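Let's practice the habit of predicting before peeking. Look at the sequence and jot down your guess about where helices and strands might fall. Then scroll down.
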Amino acid sequence: MFKKSFFIYSGIIVIILFTALSGCGVSSRSRQNNMSQWERDYRRDYNNRLSYNERRINELKDSRHRERIYVIETRNNNMKKRLDSFKGNSRNEWDSFKREFNRDMRKVEKSIKSFTKSNNNRNNSDRNNKKR
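Done guessing? Here is the structure:
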């Protein structure tokens, strides 16, 4: 009787352990897949933004302030390289990279917008001067 109950309890414990351990593996794998999906989405979105910046920069290259445009273009290209080369091993590394990268992206976009505004204002004032 003792041997029979021992085998039953041992079998139940093995089943419980197997179920618990196999469930842990599935959840960690799915978490890794979610993280890599998040990484792919982040990279895709920011590559699109960087490409848009590149198109805007190319439109501005005909202006009188080529040095300023060159600086903005260099910053945008450096950001592309940073995004392509970053290999985060953990979510914390990605979060840190994301904060810094978002801050730098806003600076580049702000530089493009301010340059576009100042360039448009100059063009409008040039047109007004020609009318007089």
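How did you do? The chain has three helices and no strands.
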